[in-house]
Amino acid sequence: MKLKIYRSKEDTLVRECRKQDSQAQREVYNRYASTMLGVCVRYIKEPDQAEDVMINGFVKVFEKIDQFKGDGSFEGWIRRIMVNDSLTYLRQNKSMYLEVDIEKADHEPDYSQMDSHLEAEDLLQLIQELPTGYRTVFNLYAVEGYSHKEIADQLGISENTSKSQLSRARSMLQKQLLAAEQMVNKKINEI
């Protein structure tokens, strides 16, 4: 029942936004801004630029609201705009330092050595510390659920480059996680 009520409220907001109703637009912004800022920050390290991309993304949402067909969730549609705008920002303003293809990235990180002392915020911080190319591919694959083919198309790289960037990101994250875990264990043992 809650889903149906939520969906009808969302449908009403979309309908009102199509009429350029500023109150509905404000409600959409207030409802989704923090989530969408989180999406933008995953790709763009600098909070001010991430916020600019998010705001421009919302402008695009309201300009292109008629393109939302209602097939999926409204939030998902907004998220896709934010991801695309973040990627556009990276292409225009940053060198992504995507490395060349490697034949095959076989080694999977071994996470079995780690305890669970690290919080989600710690992991998000470690992801933010990845080089731009690694972070972008990692977010698109692991968080947004894009395939390597979709990532390659979005970023103008080969599928093998996408796979190698993901593998290198995972490897770097594993090293960072192990180092962070060792530091936490050391502090616990000192207590």
Structure commentary:
The chain is an all-alpha fold. It folds into 2 domains: 2-93, Rna Polymerase Sigma Factor, Chain: A (Orthogonal Bundle); 111-190, Orthogonal Bundle (Arc Repressor Mutant, subunit A). The chain contains 8 helices and no strands. The radius of gyration is 19 Å and the shape is globular.
Question: What does the secondary structure layout of this molecule look like, with pairings?
Answer:
Layout: H1 2-18, H2 22-43, H3 47-63, H4 74-93, H5 120-128, H6 132-143, H7 148-155, H8 159-190
Helix pairs in contact: 1-2, 2-3, 2-4, 3-4, 6-8, 7-8
Brief digest:
This protein is mainly α and 191 residues long. The protein has helices at residues 2-18, 22-43, 47-63, 74-93, 120-128, 132-143, 148-155, 159-190. The protein has 2 domains: 2-93, Rna Polymerase Sigma Factor, Chain: A (Orthogonal Bundle); 111-190, Arc Repressor Mutant, subunit A, CATH 1.10.10.10.
Overall, the morphology is globular
CATH uppermost class of the largest domain: Mainly Alpha
Give me the count of strands: 0
Percent helix, as a range, is over 70%
Provide the CATH architecture of the largest domain. Orthogonal Bundle
Unreliable runs, pLDDT <50, ≥5 residues? 99-117
Keywords summarizing the entry:
Rna Polymerase Sigma Factor, Chain: A, mainly alpha, 2 domains, globular, 0% strand
